Amino acid sequence: MLQRQCAKVMNNLRSDYWTGKSVLVTGGAGFLGSHLIALLNEAGCAKITVPRRNEYDLTIQETVQRLLSTSRPDVVLHLAAEVGGIGANMSSPGRFFYANLAMGLHLIEESRRQEVTKFVQVGTVCSYPKHATVPFREADLWDGYPEETNAPYGIAKKALLVQLEAYRAQYGFNGIYLLPVNLYGPGDNFDLRSGHVIPALIRKMVEAKESGQPQVVLWGTGSASREFLFVEDCARALMMAAERYDESEPVNIGTGSEITIRDLASVISEVVGYDGEITYDSSRPDGQPRRCLDTSRAFEGFGFQASTALREGLEETVAWYLANR
């Protein structure tokens, strides 16, 4: 799988951009970060720094100063976040707001002070208004309040877009802002409390199949829709944007296709081989009614287009979970 993805990436990237560069990847040990690190190594980076939380608390300004002074990066890719599903967002809204805002605030400021040549901020689709027109267009980002259960997280991330725009205007700081849709794939977080919908559904279906449970109960009504992007496609998009995109406007990163949770659960049950009943607890929240992105700016701005079909990605993700749980 990794060899396949590396070959795909190198066909889309400039052969010389990453050669010899020093790169800092916050969140590089995480889900998206681990895939990105593999591709950066393949691309020929001279030095890749991945700060670990037990050494660097990125919510503390002095710690971020020490990190940047030590690593001296040419490029910063800021992936680190405190994030989870609906339940985690509802139980930790204050922490999610503070940690995500503080990390980005300090990293952007210190990168400016130390003359980092390119800063890539990974935002979130949770920043979009709850009732944004579908498909979501970047110009609609400020047309309403986010869905309530993840608003603190989404607003904290969106504030970093304002910071980058202000720093570009005042200091000429080259920071870009990307809005990936929901990610999934090998290495995802399969914890039922903090994981997102796809890994949680996979785990529930696998455990139900193995224990012979006659039914699986899911939150909500099943009518909400989501768009999902395979993690390796997202890693490729980040590298392409770092190379080719130098504008202040935010950019959606996704597939441009949506699926209801009900239909997604059906596909996952087929891939897993679970033939029990799937029911829904409508007393639990659905979250945002619909999520689907207009991805034309990513294609026009730096040539990105997702290449992994949903069922193909789900099959790889299920296979990884069964082999590594």
Structure, described:
This protein has a single domain, classed as 3-Layer(aba) Sandwich (Rossmann fold), CATH 3.40.50.720. The protein contains 11 helices and 12 strands. Helix 7 crosses helix 9 and helix 7 packs across helix 11. The chain is globular and about 60 Å long. 48% of the residues are buried.
Q: Could you name the CATH topology?
A: Rossmann fold
Number of helices: 11
- Quote the average pLDDT: 93
The SSE order reads HEHEHEHHEHEEHEEEHEEHEHH
Distance between the termini: 18 Å
What is the β-strand count?
Answer: 12
In this structure, how is the largest beta sheet organized? Answer: 6 strands, parallel
Strand order of the largest sheet: 2-1-3-4-5-10
* Total separate domains: 1
Q: Which residue ranges are poorly predicted, with pLDDT under 50 across at least 5 consecutive positions?
A: none
Tell me briefly what this model is.
By secondary structure, the chain is α/β, with parallel strands linked by helices. It has helices at residues 2-10, 31-43, 61-71, 86-91, 93-113, 151-171, 197-211, 231-244, 261-272, 296-302, 310-324, and strands at 22-26, 47-49, 75-78, 118-122, 175-180, 182-184, 215-219, 225-226, 228-230, 251-253, 259-260, 277-281.
